[in-house]
Design brief:
Blueprint lengths: L11 H11 L4 E4 L3 H4 L2 H9 L10 E4 L3 H4 L13 E4 L11 H14 L14 H10 L7 E4 L4 E2 L1 H7 L7 E3 L1 E2 L8 H14 L5 H6 L6 H14 L11
Parallel strand pairs: 1-2, 2-3, 3-4, 4-6, 5-7
Length: 237
């Protein structure tokens, strides 16, 4: 949509009308970075004044170049979200996942924190950073999907584990973010068991090198699950 179609200021009547429609939205798919590049972005952020864009949003599918657009699309995040999907177009124009992976991990840590840091998401526009602070954490989040190629770091998994309603997580774990001490292996195995309850352990062990940190984690996870009573063990078929 052409940029000139958007005014720099949102008047009271238009804002009131928008809010009435916005309160009805439950699911949203966002594939572009328009919210960071249009002049209306900051005006909307000021109008929100700490309130979510869509106050009753339950599911958000977000696919945007966060690095290039300075995270403007994150204005759509709401504490009411239960199902969040970072889609496959979130990588930058060069096809590199290095910078986006860092940004996505920062975002996930922010939405898991009760006191988000104002500088927690690198490169975010000031009004986006303020929005992330005001919505605080996504305590109702139940399902989280991260596109293939964006690794979840160990500190991010620790942060996500504090979301007590999170029951389903799809993504890749980066095992290079921690040392292979026995205590760390057990901690990470517990996190994997908590966030990936249906992981296929035999298959996963075949996919990693024997003796690697990933292999040690899956070994520890296998030991943990083998000690559970048959009635409560997880089916890993």
């Amino acid at each position: 949509m052409p940029q000139q179609n958007f005014p720099g200021v949102v008047d009271d009547f238009s804002w009131g009308r928008f809010q009435r429609y916005a309160s009805l939205v439950r699911e949203l798919r966002h594939y572009i970075g328009a919210l960071s590049t249009l002049p209306v972005s900051e005006s909307i952020a000021e109008r929100l004044d700490g309130e979510p864009f869509f106050p009753h949003l339950r599911r958000l599918e977000l696919s945007a170049d966060l690095a290039r657009t300075r995270c403007g699309s994150l204005l759509l995040l709401s504490p009411s979200i239960r199902d969040l999907d970072f889609g496959s177009s979130i990588y930058n124009s060069c096809g590199s996942f290095a910078e986006p992976a860092g940004i996505v991990n920062a975002v996930l840590s922010s939405i898991s924190s009760e006191v988000p840091s104002p500088s927690g998401v690198p490169g975010a526009l000031p009004h986006v950073a303020r929005h992330l602070q005001t919505i605080v954490r996504l305590a109702d989040l139940c399902k989280l999907r991260i596109c293939f190629g964006l690794d979840l770091y160990y500190p991010t998994m620790q942060a996500l584990s504090t979301l007590v309603n999170l029951r389903e997580l799809h993504g890749c774990i980066s095992f290079t973010e921690m040392e292979a001490s026995p205590a760390d292996v057990l901690i990470l195995a517990t996190l994997v068991d908590r966030l990936f309850p249906n992981v296929d352990i035999p298959y996963s062990r075949c996919e990693v090198g024997r003796g690697s940190l990933a292999f040690q984690v899956f070994e520890a996870l296998q030991d943990m699950r083998s000690t559970l009573p048959a009635s409560t063990s997880t089916d890993t078929r």
